[in-house]
Amino acid sequence: MARNADGDVSSARDLGARIDSLRTALRIPGLAVVVLRDTTVVLARGFGVADVERKAPVTPETPFNVASVAKPISAVVALRLVESGLLDLDRPMRRYQGFAEFCDATRGEGGVFFRDFACKDDRLTLRHVVSMTANGEQPGTRFWYNPPSFSWASRPMAEVAGRTFSELVDSLVFKPADMRNAARTNRRLPIPPRIADVMATPYHIDSVGGVMKSDPPPPQGDGAAGGVIASVMDLARFDIALTSDRLLTPTSRAALWSPTQAPSGQVLPYGLGWFLGTHAGRRVVWHTGLWEGRYSALYLKVLGDTPAERLTLILLANSDALQWPTRFDEAAIERSSFATAFFDAFLRPKTNGQ
């Protein structure tokens, strides 16, 4: 059942208080939150400080490193290239420049992400990489969260478009969505000074329980798995543009949130750049972000048939405390205290007749 405007005001007030209580308990120096009902912002607040020494307050426009919340943005880039006819998600990865060498190197290293990386022949496609089904005896049979593999997805996009991946993100997402405080960053692309100067400083809890300033995240390549600096309002603008069909057609948007089905019939809990699940009879999709000891993020959507049923929560923090324990083969939004607070404040279970 949709709530009226007065109900949203009350829910936003209650959620804000609960989020700040969780922030204090988890010793997060600074946190920003946005809640939307469809394309209307019903809560936009900052709690705590972006920088402890300067006592700079967090606002909804404070930029953070969003870590893996970049993946939904990268998936939109991929589908925009598909819509333009440049990219084929079902083309074998080994036909892209450098992938065969990447496959050989990573399989040789093994480890948690690549010991069963299914990249030895033409069966592995970009769709498998972006849907996190690139591991297992054959692609498309198993969900395994693999950020390094997803990161490599930037290269086919750059190859077919003839532009760097960061240029594609800027032109295909940031500009049309009016993400005015957002930027890409990698080892060849520093954060613009106007954003770096006001960006939230990262912190961690040391061995004796003190809140300590962290080093910035180490430089990375121009990959699809991360590399985005943005505020919660930038991500809200992205969400509004996505909902309003300014970034993708409705068919492409639905593809983001459509699960992979394994040959066994098992429905896997990841779409194209999004985790998938249900809560209280509602479809929910989300992505987390984590730079261990530095930043964390949560981007959570409740899908619905009508605008009044659609809800979005976006959280950015300058510590890693938004994250919760999750295995690489599962999607478990119910373990998030922040998601639970959001559900409690804004959702009512569906019943017959609603």
* Beta-strand residue percentage: 15-25%
Q: On the 0-100 scale, what is the average pLDDT?
A: 95
Kindly report the spatial arrangement of strands forming the biggest sheet. 3-2-1-12-11-10-9
Oligomer: single chain
Spatial separation of the terminal alpha carbons: 6 Å
**Number of E strands:** 12
Q: Element order, helices and strands? A: HEEEEHHHHHHHEHEEEHHEEEEH
Major sheet characteristics: 7 strands, antiparallel
Give me the number of helical elements.
12
The CATH topology comes to Beta-lactamase
The CATH class, by name, is Alpha Beta
Helix content: 25-40%
CATH architecture: 3-Layer(aba) Sandwich
Specify the CATH homologous superfamily: DD-peptidase/beta-lactamase superfamily
Quickly count the domains: 1
Low-confidence stretches: 349-354
Shape: globular
The radius of gyration over CA amounts to 20 Å
Structural class per helix/strand content?
A: alpha+beta
Can you describe what's shown?
The protein is of the alpha+beta class. It has a single domain (5-86, 163-346), classed as Beta-lactamase (3-Layer(aba) Sandwich), CATH 3.40.710.10. It contains 12 helices and 12 strands. Strands 3-2-1-12-11-10-9 form a 7-stranded antiparallel sheet, with helices on both faces. The longest helix has 22 residues, at 5-26. Mean pLDDT is 95; it is low at 349-354.
